[in-house]
Amino acid sequence: MKRLMTLAGVLPLAALVASAQTQRTLNIKDLVELELLTHTEVSDKMHNEGWTSILVVTGGTEERGPQDVLGGHTIMARSHAIEIARRLGKTFVAPVLPIAVNATGLRENTNQPGAIQMPADVFKAVQIAEIESMAMNGFKDIFLMGDHGGGQDQIREAAEEEDRKLSSKGVRVYYISDFYNKTHDDVDMYLYEHKLPIGGHGAMMETSEMLYLQPAPDIYVRPIYKTVQFDPTGQTPAQWKAARDARMARQAAGANATAAAGGQRGAGAGAGAGTGGGGRRGQDPNAPPRVNNGVTGDPRPSTKEIGKDLIEITVSNAVNEIRKVKAERRGTTQH
Fold it and tell me: What is the pTM of this model?
């Protein structure tokens, strides 16, 4: 009793209750996060249950206005990856890297502290180190994706290079473009169809998703999101839609021309260089000019209900592409 009282004096009661509940309800079979498992538990899942796939996901640490926390990319990436892994089945999630390339706040040389970034070559080297670590661990299918726009090219390059290097050993490495590229295009279309502000940084997508994900009010999103100042994207919804339609038409025409010339990539060439259906965003959402607070676009109508819908877009896009590219390279539809 004395020991319990001592602990209670150190830890908040809520933490003690949460700890006790975790101890009662924890089921190792439900865990997909590599960092929450012991090496013997990972080994058992791999060798006895066939868990040979892993998601290697990058988040990021950067300013996204006075309303959204700096770790938003990492928070969202981790949550998305866990749900993707569960839907795929027998898939782990590696620890999420919280640093990417060109963090907002640093790239604009602002005086607002908190962002962290890596040079592109260092970031690519880290991606390669992660891949090779997973290959040495015995994973056979390694899927790379990033929640932050900066570093997408380096993730793709690392995946393609390592796939060529490791494929003779039975290890395949994939860049999942749709996790970021197609998702942002689809999210913008969702916002357009629902007559909501489109695009931006620290705006509707991130703010809504973190409203849905936060475990308690104001933990990830401060109430100021309802009145925050922001720099407009400079594009009306009609202009955005016209530009998107033109881009999609060009992509379709290019794909048809390639097919007619017999130049389509084979199944083993890899999805890493593809545009993932929606293609790359036409403009970096982090690019200035902006009100010097990390917000481009209007986050004020954000809700957790919208966030739930947008998370589903991200997760579904990634799951669908993972299943597709794995089937292409493995020659099977089985996971």
Answer: 0.83
